[in-house]
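Annual report, structural modelling task.

Input specification for the thymidine-5'-diphosphate complex:
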Amino acid sequence: MTSGNRPGFLIVFEGTDGTGKSTQLELLRSVLQKKGFEVLATREPTDGKYGRQIRELYSNRHKLSLEEELELFLADRKDHIDTLIAPALAAGKTVLCDRYYLSTAAYQGAAGLDPDIILQRNDFAPVPDLALLFQAPIETGIKRITQGRGDSLNDFEKADYLLKVARVFEQLTLPCIKHIDASASIEAVHREVLNHVLPLLKT
Ligand code: TYD
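The model returned the following structure:
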């Protein structure tokens, strides 16, 4: 299913860890709901069967081969689309999704798979109307994770790996992508998000 021939809108939030995607998703959700839009806010990996298996990999990534890891992310996405995303889009909702297939291209691409082939493997997935790509220096993101949230870095968040992930994100050239300078203040980033989203929703 391509964008433009369905009642709802699909807006995805992409970028490396700690760039503030989730904060911005919540701010946007609140604005859109106040304006009367019906919003589904969701995320990948999901909390479903495959998403839970993916989270188990966070501390022990090397249990699976790269191909097996890719299959898990694809299975999680198929399930997510069938159960939540496609019905919401068909019902005219605005779907805000924290990570989608650009993350698979960038993260599994940085791990060694071909990003173009990863994108082809996602051809079952609705094309986003807008993919907001949050970009900030990797050190900023890592600081937000370790100091701000008090977390330690999991296997998907190691610094040299994240640098490679950021490079693959930068090289993606899909028409739905808009780049967001995520090193600015929360308010400034929010305004930039609205500048992209409100014209799309014609509001
Ligand atoms: P994240 O958004 O950090 O979720 P949570 O807050 O639940 O930890 O995503 C978890 C990690 O999964 C993140 O480091 C990126 C990685 N990831 C992939 O490697 N491939 C994918 O397709 C997706 C959706 C995520």
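DSSP finds eight helices and five strands in the chain.
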